[in-house]
């Protein structure tokens, strides 16, 4: 079967890979339909991912159709599905506590193990969620949106809370949308006027802040000098994550949605006087995937507007490197496979 392989940083190839084995008990073979390109994939291509070994078949934002199932699997062949790419062990402490998203032996498709930029993939059937009436192109956006939905749920911030989302990339935009769905009063912060304009004009996220020398004064004016009840950082940049501590109100919450190689430091007196919480948000669980799918169905998330670039399995080795270096107009790119 055809597959896109990142052989080494900066080198993508389209080649042939062996067909997956027949599915064993509890597993399913899925024909890949659509794969979203994530910031993780750009980091893999650029050699910036902290948990990766090459060569690697990328791709973890996936939709497809069930082709065959092993014993004990109720899904019928032909069922359209969203793939949860976080394959957990089911037995570690985190899994026993109902937190498979931070399993100690987690295998994330396209990161720790080969992903779905290929024609067919074998996955545990428990990681397949029926897409129902959601189109397969839309279904490929569910995973990245679930990241933001999970972070919003992790925050515990109630409706009416003032929320700052830092970073207007796909994860940040998804977080802002689900913070709005949760009834939070959302402001979006970014270095790109273009992305902020897209958020305001296309997604209705009209409260925006552009990073500049007057940022602290404008945040103070917007919040009455108190800061935000909840701050979500989705930048993947250590400097931004550290600066985010200063935007949190007393008694507030900081949710870190991205991971970096660097150490993150903060002022302990400032941290303590706020009695703030710092929360890591990692991946997502079935509850988040289902929340996203329900929100797509009811029209709360305009996923079609967020898909700005399209390519195919035959052309992604050309297009992904170009998009990695020139992101003008790019929100979410998807790969059509089958």
What does this structure look like?
There is one protein chain. The protein has 338 residues and is of the alpha/beta class. It has two domains: 2-140 and 302-336, Alpha-Beta Complex (Quinone Oxidoreductase, Chain A, domain 1), CATH 3.90.180.10; 145-280, NAD(P)-binding Rossmann-like Domain (Rossmann fold), CATH 3.40.50.720. It has twelve helices and 17 strands. Strands 3, 4, 5, 8, 9, 16 and 17 form a seven-stranded mixed sheet that branches. Strands 12-11-10-13-14-15 form a six-stranded parallel sheet, with helices on both faces. β14 (248-256), α9 (268-274) and β15 (277-280) form a beta-alpha-beta unit. α4 (142-155) packs across α5 and α4 packs across α10. It is globular, with a radius of gyration of 20 Å. It starts with a strand and ends with a strand. 45% of the residues are buried. The model has no long low-confidence stretch (mean pLDDT 96).
